[in-house]
């Protein structure tokens, strides 16, 4: 059996998708509010684990079990195009999973357990019998928590060495909920294939227009709660910064809703940048509160 092309192996891990969990891990590191000291190794390992390994694993698993859908939507992808031949897509998913678990041991017990949880959801999202992506509500929730909540939690626990303060967990969960809307927008590119293959993404279930409106609400409301919580916790400057970023997002959402399927990629490049900027602002706010000492 022929071997997969090296460039195709990189492509099937979808490097562009690595950024959200890597960024969320960095938010966790910042929100821990502890001195970095000699923890740089843990930061680098955590970023590599969140992005190229665990997120990369999820992408390979998804491409393998979606190869028939991709043959309709995106036949140029490495697996349906044959650049990753035979069963190599499955073997790469297994190899990436084992490599992720091996590296996760460096992050201690909590870091390893978080990696296990993320990998379980990565497989459950795409692989039968669970195949959570068949239902847009469950599938998007699994991806959102893995992209935002789990790496944020891991960054905190690895840096601080203790279970995170409830305020950090609350904020990480809120941004995970908001990421559900981001995942909905991401599904717009594959509506036709999803419909043909019986995948119940929210654009298929609700229609593109209704799904876009829902995504905007789901992205905006958690950020409003974050603003309110920051004000409650005595961080008005940070709250104002997050609110300002949200106002600009809402302006972009107004344009998005006019032609959601066409403009979803544009919003992913603009509105989502503002969304994750608000995440880091919030992380600095939490880090300044010295929560680990409370």
Automatic annotation (TrEMBL):
Top-level taxon in the UniProt lineage: Bacteria
PROSITE patterns the record matches: PROKAR_LIPOPROTEIN (PS51257)
Pfam family, one: UbiA
Keyword flag Cell division: no
Gene3D superfamilies assigned to the protein according to its UniProt record, in alphabetical order: UbiA prenyltransferase (1.10.357.140)
Gene Ontology biological process terms, A to Z: chlorophyll biosynthetic process
Cell compartments where the protein resides: Membrane
GO CC, one annotated term: membrane
Keyword entries, A-Z: Cell membrane, Chlorophyll biosynthesis, Membrane, Transmembrane, Transmembrane helix
Chain ranges passing through the membrane: 40-61, 93-125, 137-160, 166-185, 214-231, 237-254, 266-286
GO MF entries: transferase activity, transferring alkyl or aryl (other than methyl) groups
Alphabetical list of InterPro entries matching this protein: Chl_synth, Prenyltransferase_related, UbiA_prenyltransferase, UbiA_sf
Keyword Transmembrane helix: yes
Its membrane topology: Multi-pass membrane protein
Name of the protein this chain belongs to: Bacteriochlorophyll/chlorophyll a synthase
Species: Ectothiorhodospira haloalkaliphila
